[in-house]
Design the sequence.
């Protein structure tokens, strides 16, 4: 699969902000956050993006039999973040092709705006048995509306 | 519930050894392992104890509809362990009362024997719907045999 | 060391509330949160307790050369919690003996009050080189004031 | 920075195999491993590659003041893996440009060879204060030798 170009700002795709603090459990002996935590913060960004932009929690989506397993992830580490630092997670999303969903995430320090990590995740649509499905029409409709709102 | 006395050596309950290395992801900015990792290492100890002593993986047990959710855990942190240190996980187990399973775990440095953490976990027996069940007879039989073997 | 009695409500020790959502990364294949995450949530509770009650972040405390490594932890798992559930973390704290700090934590569902997990952690005081120290006088003073405030 | 082409087999860069089992703590409610765990397994692969190919643990490298923080990571999720599944982690490495180190990792099921995840990580060289440095000559020499050995 040809990967979509990373981190190009997508016109009309509104971003959502989430604040979170670096937990002590997320640090490592280098004194910054351990790299895999970024993917866990990306998940927090997706969760809040869906709740606010689609008016639908991902928990509710799974309850309706639609799952969004990761198929690809890309991360660029741009600066450190220490325990208790307050971070701003900015997320945007859009359908990628016919059966993929893509989230772009930027994480910066809340106080200074200094960059921490950015990247994207690409998700398939599957049913509860992990069989690939097309995104339901109502879901695609909500995505289109979310992309148009300011 | 009255907690069982912690860490009393249980006669006739054979222990099993597992070696594992501290991962970088398991360290924190204090330079030792983050405290919650101990519970993850306890799980590794339980997994190998069941495989070796019961001749039954926990995965196989769940496949037969028997789950062992934690109801209680106790941890004593006795010394640090750094990234890449090789640890020895010593596990013993026994039925506790009629419907509880208890694992006692000690973790030491493999090279020096210096203590790292010890503690216990207590588990209920449930079915797939999380309803409490009695341990199946065949499971109790295997536990009795495991406790007798050297 | 004789463990302090677990979970006895301590008169005059005010509790602080923190809300957090269960992350997908914190679930396991049983469908509830993985047990070790509770210790990570306890840490979030301690962090906010110190910020609000002592007027001092734990990050600032470490910056002054005072560290609080865990020496003991006890957990009782009282009910499940699923991805995206909103939890209320209630924390209280007090000096335990001359050189120990104890946090008691209760985690409940925010909406129903149903219990999820409760327990305590006991911490030593050390310097940056992990040598045991007495709690600084100014710290003990703040703890005493925190215990008296409503 | 122009990212190196992903996953092209690099001639002469020998791979090393590590086996590991999926921990229960690494699963999520979808029943497979949570995505961020892949980066933790990649770390295990790097650690063993360095120990076996360079004759130098990463712990020893840090002790000599050379750190390898991640600057980029890419992951492709190719198949599920369940609790207790035995995985084979295959790692290769090489210098990328003058001051970058790149690890390519493939993770497959040990028994069937079915793919689980593949990807790469790119690392900077820094000193203990996180200032970028050139890789030490002795390190570059060992890398060259490692790349030539079968």
Sequence:
């Amino acid at each position: 699969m040809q990967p979509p170009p990373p981190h190009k700002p997508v016109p009309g795709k509104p971003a959502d902000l989430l604040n979170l603090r670096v937990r002590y459990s997320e640090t490592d002996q280098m004194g910054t956050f351990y790299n895999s935590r970024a993917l866990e913060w990306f998940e927090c960004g997706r969760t809040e993006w869906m709740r606010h932009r689609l008016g639908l929690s991902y928990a509710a989506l799974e309850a309706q039999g639609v799952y969004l397993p990761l198929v690809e992830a890309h991360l660029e580490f741009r600066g450190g973040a220490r325990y208790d630092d307050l971070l701003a997670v900015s997320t945007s999303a859009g359908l990628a092709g016919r059966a993929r969903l893509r989230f772009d995430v930027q994480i910066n320090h809340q106080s200074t705006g200094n960059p921490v990590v950015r990247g994207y995740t690409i998700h398939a649509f599957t049913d509860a048995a992990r069989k690939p499905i097309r995104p339901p029409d109502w879901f695609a409709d909500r995505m289109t509306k979310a992309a148009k709102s300011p």
In short: Chain B is about 25% helix and 30% strand. The interface with chain D takes residues 21, 23-25, 39-40, 43-44, 47, 57-59, 82-84 of chain B (CB under 8 Å). The longest helix of chain B spans residues 37-54. The domain at 16-148 of chain B is CATH 3.10.129.10 (Thiol Ester Dehydrase; Chain A).
